[in-house]
Amino acid sequence: MTDSALLFDSDQLVEKLRGLKSTAADASTAHASARPHVPPQAAGRDFSATARRLDAALQRLHAAGQVRIDALLAASDAGDRQVAVLREADDNFAARLSGRSS
To answer: In this model, does residue 1 exceed pLDDT 60?
Structure first.
């Protein structure tokens, strides 16, 4: 027979999640300030259509990058909520073990 347990340091988890959120927020700010742009004349006189297609592709790539950063922000928020649930469950279980109720 094996025993199973969920061991976690909620303060450490919260600290790591705050670090993730801060890093993602910084990345979002930097990402928003560095929007790509390829002017039509950049590819040469006869290749403005190519430059526009390249610009559109870079805009889509940039937007996809923001989606990924937003996913990190959402994951850190979800992690915060999950840690709060775990803390509450742990506190309630500890209270029941000690004969207190919450």
So the answer is: no
Check residue 43 and report its DSSP letter. Answer: G
- The CA distance from 28 to 59, in Å, is 15
* Cβ atoms of 91 and 102 closer than 8 Å: yes
Q: Give the whole-angstrom CA distance, residue 101 versus residue 85.
A: 17
DSSP 25-45: HHHHHHHHH------GGGG-T
Residue 101 has pLDDT above 90, yes or no: no
**Using CA atoms, how far apart are residues 35 and 53, in angstroms rounded to an integer?**
16
Cα 63–chain centre separation? 15
Contact 26, 96 (CB under 8 A): no
**Spatial distance between the Cα atoms of 16 and 30, rounded to a whole number of angstroms:** 21
Closest C-alpha to 38, from 26, 48, 23, 27: 48
For residue 47, how far is the Cα from the chain centroid?
38
Q: What's CA 62's distance to the chain center, in Å?
A: 16
